[in-house]
Amino acid sequence: MDPRFAYDQYREFSELARQKKVIFFYVGYFSQNIITAMAEAVRLRLEQSGAAGPIRRRLFSSFVEMAQNIIHYSADALTPKEQSQDEMRHGSVCIGVDDAGHYFLLCANPIALDLAETLRERLEALRVMTLDEIKAHYRESLRAETPEDSKGAGLGFLTMARDASEPLEFEFRNSEESGMTMFFLKTTI
To answer: CATH no. for residue 142?
Structure first.
């Protein structure tokens, strides 16, 4: 293999990331240890990017929620599905700045096909709520018991919706793997 080939690909990817104003990107397996390391890198990168304190807090909070969702729900796992500690699951997360100067976070991961409709219903409901309704639902969820189908407190999407400046965007795409779909989520801060 020509060593310039790898360099050319790297340079092409770096240039595209610069043009698209990507400030952080990771694709691979997520674990709690990896999230901890990434969180420190994201925190420093956001400080360097010049984002105001409240924006950094909301970006960081949404980043953690997206990463946790990947760990809990990605269908591509190195650990058994029933394992709830030290999980390692595949996905990606990206933080960047759009043309209007707003920060965005994107994440993607495969999910079980039967989970897609549940997620779609939750996300569609959030898209039509006002910020006050989201905050009220968040407070109610803090007092409620953890939903049966949730591996957390069920607050992740509410947290992201509360911190977003626009409704959450999402999409499901057919996966090459049977019984799975790719789940894409975007939040703008």
So the answer is: 3.30.565.10
